[in-house]
Design goal:
Shape: elongated
Oligomer: single chain
Strand content: 15-25%
Number of strands: 28
Strand order of the largest sheet: 5-4-3-6-23-24-28-26
Amino acid sequence: MESCFYTTISLPSSSSSPFSIFSIQGSASNVGRKFSKSCMHPQLLSCQLPKPFLQLNGRPKYRLNQRKSAYLSSATYKEPISAEKQGWDLGRFFKTLYFFNGPPSPAKIVEFVIEKLSGSSPEESEKKMGTSDYVLVVGATGGVGRRVVNNLRKKGLPVKALVRNEEKARKMLGPDIELIVGDITKESTLVAQYFKGVKKVINAASVIIGPKEGDTPDRAKYSQGVKFFEPEIKGDSPEMVEYIGMKNLINAVRESVGLRTGKLLFGFEDQLSKELDWGALDDVVMGGVSESTFQVDRTGGEGGKPAGLFKGIVSTANNGGFTSIRTKNFFSPVDLSAYDGFEVRLKGDGRRYKLIVRTSTDWDTVGYTASFDTIGGQWQSIRLPFSSLRPVFRARTVSDAPPFNPSNVVSFQLMFSKFEYDGKLNPTFVEGPFELPLSTIKAYIKDPITPRFVHVSSAGVTRPDRPGIDLSKQPPAVRLNKELDFVLTFKLKGEDLIRESGIPYTIVRPCALTEEPAGADLVFDQGDNITGKISREEIALICIAALESPYACDKTFEVKSVVPFSEPFTVDPENPPPEKDYNIYFQMLKDGITGKESLEQGAIAV
């Protein structure tokens, strides 16, 4: 049965200023829906309700006489909320109003009234932004990149391609491909807004190496591999492409693809800190006397580190029963679509609290809410998946509200309340003082974590400086690293940037690339020791498979086919080889093996 607890507050005067209308989720009311006579106290039934003072959403809203006590439905609650009447702190009410809304102005009042009279409801003001989880392919017109694009599209996955030459890309990839025109060597061309909706990246961009004597228009000599011509760098240097370009690309996509350790939204963690502008939002806005504060205790966290402290005294006097702190709206919305939920690190007190997240800058709007229980006297991390957030408006679930949109988060609220949702009570509620130390609020990626950034590097990147290596037995790129402007050295530096970025990654190091079809048996290895050849088509398929495999996450490996260089590999179109399960290979990979171990051991020996 619905509760008839009413939260619309009017000042003691007859003013109908829109700023006298204040609704808070801690209440159990369903303002805007009809009162149920069966849930009303006889005192309320016996009094004549005043005429509507303002039509909101086409439905009347009433001001209840303050001397009447509102009772909750006897079917839900056996005792009245209000045990006593206390004086209402009008000054604190206006202080709260001022903190969140600023000084009232005629323009604000007119805008408020027009909006309400237009009939739009809070549910209607919530618009879900349409976003797709794009895979961004960098170097999309290269030998591996275009194959990655084609195979992603065959799978029906949404693709964006980062290219330098739009005309060339349209001819090669088709007219309907979504393009981002930019150059990884030019940071100014990689505008963060262009990458909105990108959730995963496959980077196949590479410095261009070509024959000194020139090549055919379709780069036939290049396609055969460096082994078959005397090479030189064409275009931008290895440092610009492999190192500076990698740094620019990581910076451009970091926010959209997410970090393995999550995104700090509030609090103090290691050397990072993120503070928000919190203000108290208590039941004073509905005539109650509960009171809370939020402050930063520089030594109140774990191990004497800083922590926020939400504390106060909660009372059910004057039909109250909740305290909360709420942030001002963020300067710009926060995009958390790369993540899966909120993680709150706090020291519990055995009570149940609520986290309320808003995706609209409107004051009185749907809040996406999750309750959580705490353990008394113990620091704990509480994970609240985005999927667990329920749309709530004035303590009622809004069944037709749009799903939570993590790409447009504008404010947070923490609440301790007598009320749960839809007429239920908080089973841990007690009146009196409370305090909740809070060290962090973060967005997290759920387990198992899969790679968000797959990079095509090269076998041999650790070998030019490896002690005791016989260069005469190494591929041309290793022997000619210095002549090729230290191409492998800068590829390794680029790899290190990925490993240090915090983005979940996979680094694929192919041996010599060929135009042969995919399908040959493969050798996966780690430590940067193998030589051989592998199909560009096979590398494209490996990159796509890595995006979905937790076994490939944060791994670096080399790969080649078992077919010797001297033997061509062909496929019978009538009897193609079966599709590979690349997870079988990924499962054998180990953490932390890059081939740099040999360099470090050599340095120690010296």
